Amino acid sequence: MLSKLPFSCDYLEGCHPAILERLSNTNYQSCDGYGYDPFTLAARDKILQACQAEDGEVFLLSGGTQANLIVISGLLRSYEGVLAPSTGHINAHEGGAIENGGHKVIGLPQTLGKVKAEDVENYLLNWNNDANHDHMVKPGMLYISQPTEYGTLYSLAELQHLSYICRQYSIRLYCDGARLAYSLASRNNDVSLADLARYCDVFYIGGTKCGALCGEAVVIREKNLIPHFFTIIKQHGGILAKGRLLGIQFDELFTDDLYLRIGSSALDYAEIITECLKDNHYQLLFETPTNQIFVIMENHQLQKLGEYVSYSYWELYDDEHTVIRLATSWATRAADVQQLCTLLEELQNS
Amino acid sequence: MLSKLPFSCDYLEGCHPAILERLSNTNYQSCDGYGYDPFTLAARDKILQACQAEDGEVFLLSGGTQANLIVISGLLRSYEGVLAPSTGHINAHEGGAIENGGHKVIGLPQTLGKVKAEDVENYLLNWNNDANHDHMVKPGMLYISQPTEYGTLYSLAELQHLSYICRQYSIRLYCDGARLAYSLASRNNDVSLADLARYCDVFYIGGTKCGALCGEAVVIREKNLIPHFFTIIKQHGGILAKGRLLGIQFDELFTDDLYLRIGSSALDYAEIITECLKDNHYQLLFETPTNQIFVIMENHQLQKLGEYVSYSYWELYDDEHTVIRLATSWATRAADVQQLCTLLEELQNS
Amino acid sequence: MLSKLPFSCDYLEGCHPAILERLSNTNYQSCDGYGYDPFTLAARDKILQACQAEDGEVFLLSGGTQANLIVISGLLRSYEGVLAPSTGHINAHEGGAIENGGHKVIGLPQTLGKVKAEDVENYLLNWNNDANHDHMVKPGMLYISQPTEYGTLYSLAELQHLSYICRQYSIRLYCDGARLAYSLASRNNDVSLADLARYCDVFYIGGTKCGALCGEAVVIREKNLIPHFFTIIKQHGGILAKGRLLGIQFDELFTDDLYLRIGSSALDYAEIITECLKDNHYQLLFETPTNQIFVIMENHQLQKLGEYVSYSYWELYDDEHTVIRLATSWATRAADVQQLCTLLEELQNS
Amino acid sequence: MLSKLPFSCDYLEGCHPAILERLSNTNYQSCDGYGYDPFTLAARDKILQACQAEDGEVFLLSGGTQANLIVISGLLRSYEGVLAPSTGHINAHEGGAIENGGHKVIGLPQTLGKVKAEDVENYLLNWNNDANHDHMVKPGMLYISQPTEYGTLYSLAELQHLSYICRQYSIRLYCDGARLAYSLASRNNDVSLADLARYCDVFYIGGTKCGALCGEAVVIREKNLIPHFFTIIKQHGGILAKGRLLGIQFDELFTDDLYLRIGSSALDYAEIITECLKDNHYQLLFETPTNQIFVIMENHQLQKLGEYVSYSYWELYDDEHTVIRLATSWATRAADVQQLCTLLEELQNS
């Protein structure tokens, strides 16, 4: 167990208590496997309603890398690759899952984890114009994340622009929403679930980092966009016999809009921590509107901080500084935030 | 929810209550992700101890097809294939997962789901002697299951013989233990966890069908037999961020030998049902020592049965008969068994 | 160099002299690479004309396994597998190329290398009716070969029946024509190139075993049946920079119907050898209408035969007999046939 | 046929006349298939001798992309990727073959097609130090080309440095020698075949662009470095039944050091063209020591040039300029060079 203040990531605790309660209450109800249980069916309906995507489909998977791998394999043909910001999770931290599945990840320039519509369009235009493009991987889709790996958000206008470009060039748009609850609860966000369903071809609603024990809900804009998707999931080992485990969790997360609210406290606490950092003259790598905070720490402070706080190493900044990440979550406690702030203040003034 | 008597399979209910309780008690403990939580570490130790495999390794995965796919991909080189009884789960019901991962499944003759050492040896001998074998897939491992897909068991002598052949020909032996608890609790079984660890290179201890919400524990006979296995799991989307979900379940299943006991009642109930079937002159496809019962039903009886009982269609027998499967599990209730027996009696006498 | 009489296979010599001459005459003509040379363009036209397939496409590849791998990968989606007689080349002797490419080869019962339409239909019907077929590989195509690996031929009626079943069940029909010239020249054959183009979706016209140094011509029934096929070939390493090498050979083979004639002498010689075998009371495994002869030899005769003749070991027959294969080709010489016959006669009478 | 002066690439003509002659002289010699013919055996010996690599192995393949795909698949495990200069052929122009085979190509910074040892070391060091590297693709090899895609050369000192780094970090070094003859004949080159065999783990000697009709000779530093490589080649469709086609060509190229001489005239002509360009105040993108010349042309000149000369479009330079490539080869004729120079002079002065 972590004996330190838990700010290293947003998957340190179990799940929202309502989910646990529901698992208990339903435990002895017998129901069909493989996603044909009534909880999964209810969750699908609620999610489609929340996304205003009546013609869509929902599939529940266990984790984010699995969702990315299976969706991308399902959408692309063998000769196609996926465009992604070079910092995209699929390009950097999924053990080469996409390439292992046969597809090239084509890294695009990025700023704070976001790709620009212009850069996407330029790539597609150049590819179209290249006389030798039959010797090259055909770009078949664009991968983005909301929030990004850097906690930043696409605005609705940006999403619309990306979507417009993708449709103009007949490639798919896919959004990785591993931390989607932290964008939906952000006051700086203007992209709703319905917007994602409208402007993306496929996206997933992250459960694991947003209050579930496990699980991501893949939303497909229209039925049969990916034919035989069940078998594709099966052949990647992504079908749980007890699909109820995923169904119950998402049914609960989408009851009374819990998912839309579950990120709020994380954002409040992230703001408090950010203010504390600024008040105490810490240097932020940049300010983010969601639950991840990137701080440029002096190296000599890190050891002390590490004695009391569990944080994430992010990257070297220069010889004397290191970027670390602090993350809040739906489970973050007020007392821990207060202790963290006190500690940060002391550290700067010692 | 199933309104009928639930005998179609062994994954119809949630999980053993001790697991639910443990999930609740530990819910707010913060701990590291990706299998570095203390529950997973404890579960690994307990499993290795139960298997008397101190030099071994344990990895926790979500489901059976995932375990098969990842273990087989990890063990084989691209030019190798896997021998399996033609009825093996990997050959028949995993959506071509193994082939999608690049490896041929080579079907061998089988009897009630079991492969004979002689047939394995013949195949290997013929391959060795074939002057053109460089043009053929090299057999790299043997896949078996315990219990098999037909509920039958390998005896210790049979396992030893298979193991001997595999080692003589330098191929791996892998055992799929999706329903392992139902063999361990069987009075007809003489193969222990330690035997599996000694005679197989890798096997997995099934959780999903044996009392867990999800999860299978892959046991590798010796450390580093599969180098970089974490990354191999990651690139197949098999790493859960909240590894605690798997750790807590297996820690509980291997506390006070729960896993060794959890299948007992299922076997008792299976015996009761079998006796009832025999007493009432139903024809069994064959008798099995575990929790699956295969009955040859007259077609005209099936409709009636289906009104009250959830069973599995297995295969056509002849124009007037159909084979069905009835399965018990750790969650099977005495009252349901009694009702089922009453119904079977009535059905035969009506 | 083989110092023995060369009857082990049909790829022992170089190529038809007309091809060599054409390679020489065109050697210094500069032309574009990657199949955009005028020879390839001419060869495509001639082949389409010979196949009466004006709406089709032709791609020239280097070898048979390559053609099978690339065509099957191009036609199937990840969740699909290929039905084939269990003796089919893709199932037995291509090193698992198809599975390495991600697809299951589903072996069907066969007789002398041929599959029956009834068996194909039964498989497809059962698959359609199986309630669990989403957990199984979807059959996406049928692979056959003409002549088969056993030198036998499908009749036109049989091909039509297979084609009808495939279309009824919406799967593709693909024919491996590695030795096609030896069927086209057979008096027992009633399947023309145009028939193959009409009843198959894709087939290939074998060059390597039929007079070329290398090369197989893949004929696709209609344009864009396999979109982006050039890139699919490229990503399998199947595009030759000097596509002219293939273009020149097929242009020559399809000039003045050379391909239709090139197998004739091989068949004449095969008949002579067969007659000699029968006259001398050798036992044939079965009689074939093409250029491969399967003989059941007494083991004690084999050593003697092997001193003078290069033959192919085929399989054990019983403790005292072995099946061998003798093959003729476009390059077989009358003198060698005569020597072989004399030897066979002596051997039987010694 | 190209009616223009042929300078677009180095694979516009057939093959060296000695090869054609040898194909003719040996045409009717019967010999074993699949690379067991005496020509291939002789070629292997001669190549190993030329490389001073008695303990090595040689395999003959059809083309460059095929060689890259098969070697990289053979060397890497599934969790490994290949480092390459971002301009490397495998990263840009092979249709995603490496990723289709399951491996990530990790692009490194490059200058004129070359990667620096420092950049390689930095990548490997950072990877080693990254606490999360189990979530990342493990770098398993470095891919370079000699000459590079930009016609530049690694010096012996540079090759030694790269080799040292690779061995220090236990990754493989592989060199793509598609145009190797043009480096070996260059006066600016100090890297011999023996150096490549000593400092690389695997490299290939390009035939297709260096005087052969097709074919690349893969040289492996020591036997069994890639176990079961024949089957690996087979499963990628890379085995030619008539292996003699490759054997004869390489036997001839390595008779009397033909391969070491075959690039000389191409380099002489490249120098003449380069001098002409400089004398006439054309701007070179940079000067190269081999057979490819990169010129920054004014757009209005291009149309005129294109009427008489077949050249390669390379890339846009700015709004008014375009980079083109002119390539010479073993087959380039003096008269064509002279006409080209006259034309370039006229164009600049018109």
Write structural notes for this entry.
The structure is a homotetramer of 350-residue chains. By secondary structure, chain A is of the alpha/beta class. Chain A folds into two domains: 94 residues, Aspartate Aminotransferase, domain 1, CATH 3.90.1150; 245 residues, Aspartate Aminotransferase, domain 2. In chain A, 41% of the residues lie in helices and 19% in strands. Chain A has 15 helices and 13 strands. Chain A has a seven-stranded mixed β-sheet, sandwiched between helices. A four-stranded antiparallel β-sheet of chain A has the order 9-10-13-12. The first copy, chain A, has a two-stranded parallel ribbon with strand order 1-11. Chain A is globular, with a radius of gyration of 21 Å. Chain A starts with a strand and ends with a helix. The mean pLDDT of chain A is 97. At the B-C interface, loops of B face loops of C.
What order do the helices and strands come in, and which of them pair?
The structure is a homotetramer of 350-residue chains.
Chain A: E1 5-6, H1 17-25, H2 38-50, E2 57-61, H3 64-75, E3 80-85, H4 89-92, H5 97-100, E4 105-108, H6 117-129, E5 138-145, H7 156-168, E6 172-177, H8 180-184, H9 193-199, E7 202-206, E8 216-220, H10 229-235, H11 244-253, H12 258-261, H13 264-279, E9 283-286, E10 292-298, H14 299-308, E11 309-310, E12 312-318, E13 321-327, H15 334-349
Parallel strand pairs in A: 1-11, 3-4, 3-5, 5-6, 6-7
Antiparallel strand pairs in A: 2-8, 7-8, 9-10, 10-13, 12-13
Helix pairs in contact in A: 1-11, 2-11, 13-15, 14-15
